[in-house]
Design goal:
The protein is about 35% helix and about 15% strand. The chain has 24 helices and 27 strands.
Length: about 900
């Protein structure tokens, strides 16, 4: 850095511009100036260009409303879209100059922070700046949000009150181009499910923050000083959020003041009853928005888990008046689980524009596309009085719980964005640029407006499951980060934020960080983590015993037995019965086979185009192998001296690779055992045991990697399958293997040689006769009530190839329709009938191609990265 001494960077911030004089831009300039000075540059902040030659660089900051100093940019190159920017290198008065031009305040902030990031991560910052080629970016998604949860009083107060934490954390979010920060209160418990609640701090949030005029509502053991401190802290968080150009969203996830079956609750609330409950919540929302003007928006859970029994339209009609009564604009976001048309009308009648935020992949993270189909156990059923306070959400509207449901009507009066829940990956480092980019594209699916990410470690120590190691899951003191636990995931935040902003971003936007962190090992670190990060999302999509994140945790998988037993351990199944591995449904049963379904079809020789468990196993093994190879290269490049950041990455890559091998071999073991049950050949049982023992070895390697690294009790809840360590799960694996060894009695003395041959063919080798060079151009749009012509080009395909069109409305309660396509030379054609398009919904569709030897494949299907939308979608003309 000494070589920067004497080098001058002049920042020209034009004070007469509409945007450059704003507080957010001034903050970004100060942030940039601080980074430059830490690199030993001399920084001048001026309102005119320095005429001296050869001393450094001038950076001119202005918006698109400026005087004509940006005439060197054509009209097409000017940043126009909200939040867009251009950085252009030119020479002015013989001085190297960078023009930083934003369409608005946020665009300017992003442009300045981009330069900050380049300087922060460069070995020769000045040369990097002098050699810049034009950078022009604009956002793909209007909403790019991060949600942080307060779920445990003992642990979360430490960061909630820490002002230095907020300054650093929010600066990182702004630097990675998130434009919203959401603080969730009341997600510690789901009041429809949890008995014996202890920690009620911030669950019914209002009286912990404000005193509402006209009500005598008190919280036991909460002083007025602490309540005032809470509001002061909330205001500080909001001020710091807005100073960095982000919106400040507050989530109120619980509306019940007295949880049932919880006699030992801390912070009991008095002064409310059935008559004044709804009016109090309404007036509390109004008071909160008045007392904390920094709040830009509210997220509200409007189903029974908020503690309000269904149906509750009259309750919500009163409560949702609160934001309207505040007298100022508010971003109202309704968590849509259980929402029906009547509740949508209640929200609409309130007069405030609102958004709904469905879950992207239930309460987990899957591959970066929206489910082609939901599990059969999520489809709507007739209302049942036994459902009690869940009578809407768990019956007629239960398909709204874990996806976009039927909310994508083209004539809707609300916006939609998606929330990625933290069930799949909570602790281990994630980083796949391909996947993040495709999530960025999927964020605008059928006109939706973006994505909210529930940050890593969300729900840590939830439901009073705190441990002595606190929120940081490491026990190795050299790896612990304490209150800075979030810094482990800097690369994850970078990929999510920047690729939600621009899915086509230059890879330099993340690779500069990796080079600064890992030097010559950067490329190998990127590749190893990329392949490792595909493993758990793929497994989540292919195997989903529970859609609930408080039941299912693939990272530290509680073993689901392959061999059915009368007495099963308590574990995470809410789907098909019996609750065994081979009966577990995929999270997308439209594109992925269930194990028992696959083996049944194979024995009958009735293959479909779904991805089989053996294909999934092969992909998992391939990703694990590639991750391991690249990690080996990275380790060699790093050498003996390994910084904690590399050790954290290396450990987590090894864990995910081990999980990939475990799940791959368990899929094979389950498939072999299912074939054995159907065919009776003892060789199939022996093969199942071989695979299962290989799976156990892979799991034991994960245990070895994590021993004395992660704490023995990582907690995300109080039930056994939501806490613990990988070592805790070994015994259940061994028990299942022992039970499988006892199944030889099921072997048949006489077996069908044809069935045995067919079983072994599909167990050991999947042969798909791919149809080469399929070509299809989707219609750009369709007119409601008109036929839609669909054509697929099949150049050089055999005449015996048959194609079916599978299509449905963008409504997850609907089933796929099927049409056999007509052959016309080297193409096949059909029409989606007008009777089907006469609905308010867009359409999704894909092709199922059958070859002469009864092989089937889907098109477009997945590419090698598994990071594409495997079907087509078309919207109605608007």
């Amino acid at each position: 850095m000494e070589k920067n001494i004497g080098k001058i960077i002049t920042l020209v911030q034009k004070g007469n511009d509409k945007s450059t004089s704003k507080e957010q831009v001034s903050w970004a300039v100060d942030y940039f100036k601080d980074i430059l000075e830490k690199k030993w540059f001399t920084v001048n902040v001026s309102d005119e260009i320095n005429n001296k030659k050869g001393i450094g660089l001038t950076i001119i900051i202005e918006d698109t409303q400026s005087d004509p100093s940006t005439d060197f940019l054509s009209k097409e190159d000017q940043p126009i879209a909200p939040e867009s920017f251009v950085i252009e290198r030119v020479t002015v008065k013989d001085q190297p100059t960078l023009f930083v031009i934003g369409a608005d305040v946020r665009g300017l902030v992003y442009a300045i922070l981009e330069l900050s990031d380049i300087v922060q991560n460069a070995t020769d910052p000045l040369q990097e700046l002098l050699n810049l080629t034009r950078i022009k970016e604009q956002p793909a998604n209007p909403i790019r949000s991060v949600k942080r949860l307060f779920v445990n009083e003992k642990l979360d107060k430490s960061w909630f009150y820490d002002k230095d934490f907020w300054r650093e954390y929010l600066s990182e979010l702004a630097n990675q181009r998130f434009n919203r920060f959401s603080l969730a209160l009341g997600m510690g418990y789901d009041l429809g499910h949890d008995p014996d609640i202890k920690d009620f701090y911030f669950c019914f949030a209002y009286p912990f923050l404000v005193s509402v005029p006209g009500y005598k509502v008190n919280v036991s053991d909460l002083s007025e000083d602490e309540r005032n401190k809470n509001l002061e802290t909330l205001r500080f968080i909001g001020q710091e959020t807005k100073r960095r150009g982000l919106e400040f969203q507050v989530g109120i996830w619980t509306q019940a003041y007295e949880p049932e079956d919880s006699p030992d609750i801390r912070y009991k609330i008095s002064g409310l009853n059935e008559e004044n409950h709804a009016p109090y919540c309404r007036d509390a929302l109004k008071t909160l928005l008045t007392e904390c003007p920094e709040i830009d928006g509210l997220t509200i859970r409007v189903h029974y888990e908020s503690g309000i029994p269904e149906p509750a339209h009259l309750f919500w009609k009163v409560v949702l008046e609160g934001p309207a009564l505040s007298g100022r604009p508010v971003n109202l976001d309704l968590h849509p689980k259980g929402i029906d048309d009547e509740l949508l009308q209640v929200a609409e009648d309130n007069g405030i524009p609102f958004t709904i935020s469905p879950k992207f992949w239930a309460e987990h993270m899957g591959l970066p596309y929206h489910q082609a189909e939901i599990r059969e156990t999520e489809l709507p059923i007739e209302p049942n009085p036994e459902a009690g306070k869940m009578i809407i959400t768990t019956t007629s509207r239960r398909f709204t719980r874990y996806g976009y449901a039927d909310f994508f009507k083209e004539d809707r009066n609300y916006d939609i964005f998606f929330r990625i829940w933290p069930g799949t990956q909570r602790v281990l480092l994630w980083g796949d640029p391909e996947m993040a980019a495709e999530y960025g594209r999927a964020g605008s699916f059928c006109g939706s407006t973006g994505v909210e990410l529930m940050e890593p470690l969300s729900f840590k120590s939830r439901k009073t499951s705190e441990t002595t190691t606190g929120r940081d899951p490491y026990v190795d003191p050299s790896l612990r980060l304490g209150l800075q636990d979030w810094r482990k995931y800097l690369y994850s935040y970078r990929l999510w934020g920047r690729l939600l902003y621009n899915p086509d971003a230059n890879p330099e936007t993340w690779r500069r960080y990796l080079r600064n962190e890992f030097q010559t090992a950067a490329d190998s670190c990127e590749s190893s983590l990329k392949y490792a990060s595909k493993i758990l999302p793929l497994f989540t999509v292919a195997h989903s015993p529970s859609v609930a994140n408080n039941n299912y945790w693939p990272e530290i998988y509680s073993n689901i037995m392959i061999v059915d037993q009368e007495e099963k351990p308590a574990y995470h199944c809410d789907g098909r019965e019996p609750a065994t591995f081979n009966h577990v449904s995929p999270l997308d049963p439209g594109l992925f086979y269930r194990v028992d379904e696959f083996t049944e079809d194979m024995i009958k020789d009735q293959i479909s185009s779904k991805i089989s468990p053996i294909e999934t196993a092969n992909l998992l093994e391939e990703f694990a192998s590639l991750a391991t190879q690249h990690l080996s290269d990275a380790t060699k490049a790093i050498g003996k001296h390994q910084e904690p950041s590399f050790r954290r990455l290396a450990i987590d890559v090894k864990v995910q690779s081990g999980l990939g091998l475990f799940f791959a071999n368990k899929f094979r073991a389950g498939t072999a055992f299912a074939f054995f049950e159907k065919v009776g050949d003892p060789e199939l049982l022996n093969q199942a045991l071989t695979y299962y023992r290989a799976a156990k070895i892979a799991w034991e390697q994960v245990v070895d990697v994590t021993k004395d690294v992660y704490t023995d009790d990582i907690t995300f809840g109080y039930v056994p399958f939501m806490r613990g360590h990988w070592a805790d799960r070994v015994q259940a694996i061994e028990d299942d293997i022992a039970n499988m060894e006892k199944q030889m009695d099921l072997a048949k003395k006489e077996v069908s040689l044809e069935e045995v041959e067919r079983a072994k063919k599909w167990l050991f080798q999947i042969q798909v006769d791919n149809v080469s060079s399929c070509e299809h151009t989707p219609p750009t749009e369709f007119q409601r009530g008109d036929d839609i012509k669909i054509a697929l080009e099949l150049p050089n395909a055999s005449p015996e190839v048959n194609v079916k069109l599978k299509y449905r409305q963008v409504n997850q309660a609907q089933s796929y329709q099927s049409l056999t396509m007509e052959r016309q030379g080297e193409r096949v054609v059909t029409k989606i009938p007008s009777s089907y398009t006469d609905s308010p919904y867009p359409l999704v569709y894909y092709f199922e191609i059958e070859t002469a030897d009864n092989q089937k494949q889907m098109y477009p299907g997945f590419d090698n990265s598994l990071c594409n939308q495997p079907y087509f979608s078309i919207r109605q003309s608007r």
